[in-house]
């Protein structure tokens, strides 16, 4: 999956391992950028980083929720004190996504899984 598809698009699915690694990369990059800009230009200079950082995080979360067959509205669970954020953390970081195709696309983990199956086309009896 390309950078654009992973961090900028709200479409598609993202498996758990890819989400966790992408989240770690997002966290490291944004932390380094924030620290560098604040040390170099002052705290006001970091304000322009908030919208792109939030969009990238939203794109990752949307794809991870899609992997479970849930819409982005599932983020509203986070509004429930204590239980909501814990539930979202479990869904996003720990639980396996739905197997097979769902309304948000095919299962990324099953692409090419049945590589021994041969499609026979054009055979006339």
TrEMBL record:
**TM annotation in the entry:** 21-41, 72-93
Q: Which UniProt keywords apply?
A: Membrane, Transmembrane, Transmembrane helix
Q: Say yes or no: keyword Cytoplasm present.
A: no
Which protein is depicted?
DUF805 domain-containing protein
